[in-house]
């Protein structure tokens, strides 16, 4: 228990139905649907009369379900709760993120948070910590080419795993531009690890001399900027669209200017509703930043013009032990990497346990 002169904070026991009910009963009238399975820590804020006046949670680096009773919002309750949660997160991480409504930006900025981007009027993302987006921009400066290229494109990929389709899209962009930056999603929420994914890409594009691989960190389709990307969800809601908008705004406002990017390539999306809406939102937003949106028809499976190559087909084949299909979907470099590192068995076990989309 933590106290100051006006409030005290008590950690909730998320395995206790009574504590979970207290949080849900407090948050429901404020428009929150609390799900204890999506957080690792929750706390309740009490006033001197032992009334709950605020709650807050976090998962990993992200503050979640943070709410203060309306008649206590001008008191020190909000600052007390945010400071408590931030300090807890910073014990294990160098940074903390929070999603909030744009009207709350000033409140968080007064507590040391920095605004990264918004998807008005619903979502803003802010960060706090020793590590921040300026560190990532310094990294981008280190990987940036200084050969004075003018035709510069970007592709964002998860590559779970790297397929003939991914290779085709990169080759297309490479042939049409002087330089291509391939941002690789770094969040460890995929069947294949980031280390394996980026190495498969590296081997699959070794013949392309104008392509630079870039680590996505927390700012490219990450659990911080676009958490719904990693959920198996056929229904695309407003939150998913706004998360997509937020992620794209971060790319357009911070990443593209740092590297001089003028184009962004994507493959047509035939299978994943979330990725499809992401592409649609991108098509709307990027022209506002003078970034050309280029959609390339997804590569077809050889001898089967009605079927397209996708990483989801690869994962399904591995899960079902239908490895013969992989020869039609993967470059020789990926096949060799998977076999040499014994990844079929490892990934199959992950897929049997996981409901994740990506």
TrEMBL record:
<dbReference type="GO" id="GO:0008771">
    <property type="term" value="F:[citrate (pro-3S)-lyase] ligase activity"/>
</dbReference>
<keyword id="KW-0547">Nucleotide-binding</keyword>
<keyword id="KW-0067">ATP-binding</keyword>
<dbReference type="InterPro" id="IPR013166">
    <property type="entry name" value="Citrate_lyase_ligase_C"/>
</dbReference>
<comment type="function">
    <text>Acetylation of prosthetic group (2-(5''-phosphoribosyl)-3'-dephosphocoenzyme-A) of the gamma subunit of citrate lyase.</text>
</comment>
<protein>
    <recommendedName>
        <fullName>[Citrate [pro-3S]-lyase] ligase</fullName>
        <ecNumber>6.2.1.22</ecNumber>
    </recommendedName>
</protein>
<dbReference type="Pfam" id="PF08218">
    <property type="entry name" value="Citrate_ly_lig"/>
</dbReference>
<keyword id="KW-0436">Ligase</keyword>
<dbReference type="InterPro" id="IPR004821">
    <property type="entry name" value="Cyt_trans-like"/>
</dbReference>
<dbReference type="InterPro" id="IPR014729">
    <property type="entry name" value="Rossmann-like_a/b/a_fold"/>
</dbReference>
<feature type="domain" description="Citrate lyase ligase C-terminal">
    <location>
        <begin position="152"/>
        <end position="338"/>
    </location>
</feature>
<dbReference type="GO" id="GO:0005524">
    <property type="term" value="F:ATP binding"/>
</dbReference>
<dbReference type="InterPro" id="IPR005216">
    <property type="entry name" value="Citrate_lyase_ligase"/>
</dbReference>
């Amino acid at each position: 228990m933590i106290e100051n002169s006006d409030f005290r904070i008590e950690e909730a026991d998320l395995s206790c139905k009574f504590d979970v009910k207290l949080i849900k009963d407090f948050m429901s009238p404020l428009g929150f649907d609390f799900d204890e399975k999506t957080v690792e820590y929750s706390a309740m804020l009490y006033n001197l009369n032992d009334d709950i006046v605020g709650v807050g949670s976090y998962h990993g680096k992200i503050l979640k379900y943070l709410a203060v009773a309306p008649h206590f919002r001008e008191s020190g309750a909000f600052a007390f709760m945010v400071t408590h949660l931030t300090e807890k997160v910073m014990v294990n991480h160098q940074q903390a993120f929070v999603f909030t409504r744009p009207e709350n930006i000033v409140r968080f900025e007064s507590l040391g948070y920095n605004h990264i981007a918004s998807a008005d009027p619903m979502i803003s993302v802010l960060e706090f910590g020793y590590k921040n987006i300026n560190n990532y921009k310094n990294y981008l400066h280190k990987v940036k080419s200084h050969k004075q290229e003018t035709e510069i494109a970007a592709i964002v990929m998860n590559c779970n795993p790297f397929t003939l389709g991914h290779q085709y899209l990169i080759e297309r962009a490479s042939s049409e531009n002087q330089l291509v930056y391939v941002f690789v999603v770094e969040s460890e929420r995929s069947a294949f690890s980031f280390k394996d994914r980026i190495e498969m890409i590296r081997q699959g594009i070794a013949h392309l001399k104008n392509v630079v691989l870039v680590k996505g960190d927390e700012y490219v389709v990450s659990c911080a900027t676009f958490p719904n990307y990693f959920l198996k969800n056929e229904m695309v809601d407003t939150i998913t669209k706004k998360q997509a908008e937020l992620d794209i705004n971060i790319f357009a406002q911070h990443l593209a200017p740092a590297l001089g990017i003028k184009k962004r390539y994507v493959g047509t999306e035939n299978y994943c509703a979330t990725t499809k809406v992401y592409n649609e939102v991108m098509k709307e937003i990027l022209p506002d930043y003078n970034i050309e949106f280029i959609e390339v028809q997804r590569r077809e499976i050889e001898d089967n013009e009605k079927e397209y190559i996708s990483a989801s087909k690869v994962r399904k084949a591995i899960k079902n032990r239908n490895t013969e299909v992989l020869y039609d979907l993967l470059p020789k470099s990926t096949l060799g990497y998977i076999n040499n590192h014994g990844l079929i068995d490892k990934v199959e076990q992950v897929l049997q346990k996981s409901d994740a989309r990506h």
